[in-house]
Specification:
The complex is a heterotrimer of chains A (407), B (241) and C (270). Chain A has 407 residues and is an all-alpha fold. Chain A is 66% helix and 1% strand. Chain A has a two-stranded antiparallel sheet with strand order 1-2. By secondary structure, chain B is mostly helical. Helices cover 34% and strands 0% of the residues of chain B. The radius of gyration of chain B is 34 Å and the shape is elongated. The model of chain B has no long low-confidence stretch (mean pLDDT 89). Chain C starts with 22 loop residues before the first helix and ends in a 7-residue tail after the last strand. Chain C has eight helices and eleven strands. Chain C is α+β, with helices and mostly antiparallel strands. The longest helix of chain C is centred in the first third of the chain and has 20 residues. In chain C, 22% of the residues lie in helices and 18% in strands. The chains are: A mainly alpha (407), B mainly alpha (241), C alpha+beta (270). Chains in contact: A-B, A-C, B-C. At the B-C interface, helix 2 and helix 3 of B face helix 1, helix 3, strand 2, strand 4 and strand 5 of C.
Chain lengths: 407, 241, 270
């Protein structure tokens, strides 16, 4: 502790768990927006990742409320948010936005997309899996042309509704921070926008990593056109995200409000590693350069031609660095906002516990849990073609296509 | 109508119904009565026990002490500042007694010299002022007028005295510049010492032509016109800016 | 002698122009001063009825609207208020849970501002180490009981609220412990209670107000640095405070409309 902090500020209120929450919902929003690229904007190249992106979004969305619950002083009273929400509070909207997104957007979209395959699988399955898949169809086993067309249209409508819903799901988290006038590090009009674009960046990067790793684990060939397209969108997203963050930074320095002194001190001392090194250098600049050189973002085929394996590695490394960078953004926003005193005269420290409900071990567990859930989802709702039912799918079997075309 | 629609509608209807039922059962009864909060909370907050009784309660039994105190310098120092919370004593006067501070610690909390305290507040140096003697031996806590009138101004104006003592004006007594009636020491707020009113007062020592060569001298006509001297130079520490 | 020593109306920096009075004039002025000042000083004794306690003991919140005046020029930093508050409200004894605390400001001639509050002031203040001190003073801090409270605005469930009589309270049995209100408070007035795991803060000793008493910090302040009363009253000590002092509030640019009013607050106070 240096300088002066208000006596009650000694203890940081929002800990590592609250860093985790925007990271998880960001991945959800980003993965969903990637999926919607294919559905609404007909970007055919990323079609192999469509179902995987949806399942990823679902897995992370299911885990997202857990860090919040763990952090509450009285988690058993959390239902009060649904019963008596304070309409003036951004946080009160959490329950409804989350429920809307989970039920109306994500679950419905997954259901409409998978219904036909679930019916077909259930016919051939035996045992528990048969009952699970049959139950998931909710008994709607009609596979007529009319039904399938309805599935298609409903899915499209839901995706269109889902895009602004995804913006809302993660944007409101940015608003929760950005609307706190008491905290000059958080209070900013750009906060929801920066959150959203960094979410898109992290979501695309995550799907890229998962697609690449799952394809490798299944001993299949990675679809290069898909990877290139993902990398291209990732590059554009990083450029926008970086521009927004740079704008915020320049704006702060230029206006030089009263808080600039303590905030500069904080960035130079407490946040040097997480902001300058992890977020800026490793998380933004280096991936930006890597993708600018290798991906088709600026020039078709990239500036540097690499053999496919090396290209995969480049994309993978860039995507992993991006994950570290986006996590650092969340850390710098949440923890950074509490490292300086509201008296603007002092700094404090945050000591991460190892164990305990707000500790490092809990956060690592919560980060791994979505992958466990994803594994289970993939078992029940496999997103790849060779496990798709054969007879009712007039699939165009291109060599190398690992995923069934939709429809 | 495609098969999917009624099934989905059913699932959603069940969920909404569950929420409605939950809301009916789980929202507390008094919520929303006055504002967006549980009105019963006011009752539970208001029912918290008091630890401090309030000095009016002390007057009921300890009238004469209160009368004495209210006529003294400690009229603003209410009973429980020194004697601690007394609600338990009010409830059970014979068996629960408030504490009576008989040492020096309690008085020193307020009256030890601290430069951040407002000037004129009576402050002493705890080490130098009657060391080891309990304060109450000379000062009745309920009528703490000093047993003897303070000799020097520094007794109350410690900060000024300390500043002056390390300045060029260290050898000047307060009375050189300030005429203080004797009654100021017993009635400080109503009877105030005088302060010099014009430049020629300081010129008495600092005008050019003064035979004491060590004193800095200035031309009264031109130096720092039109200001009076103390608008720039703090008289208790007049070192030049 | 019953003349006013700590005259609530005068500040310590305005001595009369001609200080030497003759005896008759002096006694006349003294008597007049006593009559004028007595209600406000001895009015301390009459607080129960002044605070609207009905004869039959029923408290009507709609008849009151509370605020507090703070005069840092009178504060001697003794922290009796901090101790009394901790006792009265069962605030945890550890050094980072306070409903109210005292800050010391030390401003040097080269514009360096040092602020400290060791254990809220309860442990006393260490001796000054700087030598070129220009100004130094104490400032009592507490929940500002804002009229436009950002903490109430952000509570997701309605566990913190402002009462009809202007006090911002927390419902211990409804708060979920999300800590959003603690983040939203610009003054550092809130904390999470380590045992009940709900948000906690100064309540203006609401349980004392409904019984016609003043908050514990006001009760024990030995120099009258805290003046409690009705912000919309006429013949009250607080009204006089508001009439005769330059009134500031903390962080006015945030538009929280605090009801804790500071007299002649130094510009360096945050």
């Amino acid at each position: 502790m240096q300088g002066y902090i208000y006596p009650n500020e000694f203890e940081l209120q929002w800990s590592l768990l609250i860093v985790l929450y925007p990271y998880l919902t960001g991945l959800v929003a980003g993965a969903f927006i990637l999926a919607s690229l294919e559905r609404v904007f007909n970007v055919k190249e990323v079609q192999p990742t469509y179902r995987l992106a949806l399942l990823t979004a679902l897995a992370f969305l299911l885990v997202a409320p857990l860090p919040l619950l763990a952090h509450l002083g009285h988690p058993l009273r959390s239902y009060e948010i649904f019963l008596t929400p304070n309409r003036k509070s951004a946080m009160a909207m959490f329950g409804f936005v989350y429920a809307w997104y989970l039920a109306v957007v994500l679950l419905l979209e997954v259901w409409f997309d998978y219904r036909k395959d679930l019916v077909l699988w259930a016919r051939n399955d035996r045992g528990v899996m048969r009952w699970i898949r049959y139950a998931l169809t909710l008994g709607a086993t009609d596979l007529s042309e009319r039904s399938l067309r309805f599935d298609e249209r409903a899915g499209r409508v839901i995706t269109i509704v889902g895009i602004p819903s995804a913006f809302l799901l993660h944007g409101y988290v940015g608003f929760i921070f950005g609307s706190i006038k008491a905290n000059p590090w958080w209070s900013s009009v750009l906060m929801p926008v920066v959150f959203l674009f960094s979410a898109i960046v992290s979501g695309i990067a995550l799907v890229l990593v998962i697609y690449m790793l799952t394809t490798m684990f299944r001993w299949r060939k990675v679809d290069m056109a898909c990877m290139d397209k993902l990398a291209q969108f990732l590059f554009y997203a990083i450029v926008v995200d970086f521009s927004l963050e740079a704008l915020d930074f320049i704006h702060r320095l230029y206006e030089a409000e009263e808080s600039i002194q303590i905030l500069s001190q904080m960035v130079e001392s407490r946040l040097f590693l997480s902001l300058i090194v992890l977020q800026f250098l490793m998380g933004t600049i280096i991936p930006l350069i890597m993708l600018a050189l290798v991906s088709p973002g600026l020039r078709k085929g990239g500036f540097v031609r690499l053999p496919p394996e090396l290209k995969h590695l480049t994309y993978l490394v860039a995507a992993v660095l991006i994950q570290i960078g986006i996590f650092s953004i969340r850390w710098n926003v949440v923890i950074g906002g509490q490292l300086f005193s509201k008296s603007l005269r002092g700094l404090t420290v945050y000591k991460v516990q190892l164990f305990g409900i707000e500790g490092l071990a809990m956060s690592v567990a919560l980060l791994l849990l979505p992958f466990v859930i994803l594994w289970a989802l993939v078992k029940i709702l496999p997103p790849w073609m060779d496990e798709a039912p054969g007879e009712a799918t007039p699939a165009a079997e291109e060599p190398g296509a690992a995923f069934p075309p939709r429809g | 109508m495609p098969q999917q629609v009624p099934r989905l509608v059913f699932v959603f209807a069940v969920a909404v119904l569950a929420l409605v039922i939950a809301r009916w059962y789980l929202v507390p009864d008094t919520f929303g009565d006055i504002g967006h909060y549980r009105a019963a909370a006011l009752d539970s907050i208001a029912a918290r026990p008091m630890k401090y009784a309030g000095h009016q309660q002390c007057t009921i039994c300890h009238g004469p002490i209160q009368e004495a105190r209210l006529a003294s310098n400690h009229k603003g120092v209410r009973c429980e500042v020194c004697h601690g919370p007394a609600a338990a004593h009010i409830a059970n006067p014979m068996e629960v007694k408030p504490s009576i501070p008989r040492g020096r610690d309690q008085c020193i909390l307020c009256h030890a010299f601290d430069p951040s305290r407002p000037t004129g507040f009576p402050q002493i140096d705890p080490v130098a002022h009657s060391p080891l003697v309990p304060c109450k031996d000379c000062h009745d806590p309920h009528a703490p007028e000093p047993p003897v009138v303070p000799e020097s101004c520094a007794a109350c104006h410690g900060e000024i005295a300390r500043q002056k003592s390390v300045s060029h004006h260290a050898s000047l007594d307060c009375e050189v510049c300030h005429v203080a009636p004797v009654t100021h020491k017993t009635n400080p707020r109503s009877v105030r010492p005088s302060k010099p009113t014009n430049r020629s007062f300081c010129g008495g020592c600092h005008a050019i032509g003064d035979p004491r060569a060590a004193i800095p001298q200035i031309d009264l006509q031109t130096h720092g016109q039109p200001y009076t001297c103390w608008q720039c130079h703090y008289p208790h520490h007049p070192e030049a800016p | 002698m019953s003349t006013a020593r700590f005259d609530p109306g005068s500040s310590r920096s305005d001595p009369p122009a001609s200080p030497v009075l003759d005896r008759r004039q002096f006694l006349g002025e003294a008597a007049a001063g006593a009559c004028a000042a007595a209600p406000f000083l001895l009015g301390v004794v009459r607080l129960p009825t002044a605070f609207g306690q009905q004869p039959d003991g029923v408290y009507d919140a709609s008849e009151h609207y509370y605020g507090m005046g703070v005069d840092p020029g009178r504060c001697i930093g003794c922290a009796r208020c901090v101790a009394a508050c901790k006792t009265e409200n069962d605030v945890p004894a550890e050094p980072h849970y306070f409903n109210t605390w005292i800050e010391r400001y030390v401003i040097t001639e080269d514009d360096d501002v040092g602020v400290d509050s060791p254990n809220g002031g309860l442990d006393g203040f260490p001796p000054l180490t700087r030598t070129n001190v220009e100004r130094t003073f104490f400032v009592p801090k507490l929940c500002n009981q804002c009229d436009n409270p950002p903490c109430v605005q952000v509570c997701p469930v309605g566990a913190t609220f402002m009462t009809e009589d202007g006090v911002v309270l927390v419902d211990d049995d409804y708060c979920i412990g999300c800590r959003y209100c603690i983040q939203a408070c610009p003054y550092g007035a809130r904390y999470l209670h380590p045992e009940t795991h709900v948000a906690a803060k100064c309540t203006f000793c609401y349980h004392r107000l409904v019984r016609g008493q003043v908050p514990a910090c006001v009760e024990v302040c030995p120099t009258g640095a805290r003046i409690f009363g009705e912000v919309r009253g006429r013949a009250t000590p607080l009204a006089r405070f508001m009439r005769f002092n330059q009134i500031q509030v903390l962080k006015p640019h945030l538009n929280t409309a605090p009801k804790v009013l500071y007299a002649n607050l130094d510009g360096e106070v945050r």
